[in-house]
Amino acid sequence: SHLLFPGCELTANTKSYTFQVDEEDDSDHILALSVVCLTDGAKDECNVVEVVGRNHENQEIAVPVANLKLSCQPLLSLDNFKLQPPVTFRLAAGSGPVHLTGWHRIVHREDASFEEDDDLSEEEEEEEELAPIMPAKK
């Protein structure tokens, strides 16, 4: 099941945003980025957005995913670039505002071997609500 990622906005005052899930949760989570775009109030400067996560050796890595400039590339489609939470989005250069949107998918491990069922019970639907998102440390 897909849930809308509420998105986030990176600015000069809020340079990072972390999307994380409950580690006690026995489900697999996928976060997919669809679009990164400059919004009202953006200056004509380079705005570099990085994704900060962990590699297979559990070392923190930062990868630039967008370099936006109002006059030449104010929007970038990331074609549902898939990430595994927890993940932090960081404005590495520029002052924004930059808005990120996408979706969040939860796959219950006990259900993974079965076909996806569109008729979820109310209890299953409640389990699939987004986990609270904590602000990133500056």
| Tally of domains | 1
The CATH homologous superfamily name equals: Nucleoplasmin core domain
What structural category characterises the helix and strand content? mainly beta
Order of helices and strands: EEEEEEEEH
Low-confidence stretches: 114-128
Number of helix segments? 1
- The helicity comes to under 10%
Biased composition (Acidic residues): 113-130
Main location: nucleus
Subunit structure: Interacts with NPM (via N-terminus). Forms a pentamer with NPM at a ratio 4:1 (NPM3/NPM). Two pentamers form a decamer.
Protein name: Nucleoplasmin-3
Can you walk through the features of this model?
With 138 residues, this protein is mostly beta strands. The chain has a single domain (2-108), classed as Jelly Rolls. The chain is 4% helix and 50% strand. The protein has 1 helix and 8 strands; from the N terminus they run ββββββββα. The strands form 2 sheets. It has a 4-stranded antiparallel beta sheet with strand order 1-8-3-6, with no helix packed on it. Strands 2-7-4-5 form a 4-stranded antiparallel beta sheet, with no helix packed on it. It is elongated, with a radius of gyration of 16 Å. The two termini are 33 Å apart. Residues 113-130 have a biased composition (Acidic residues). Interacts with NPM (via N-terminus). Forms a pentamer with NPM at a ratio 4:1 (NPM3/NPM). Two pentamers form a decamer. Its main location: nucleus.
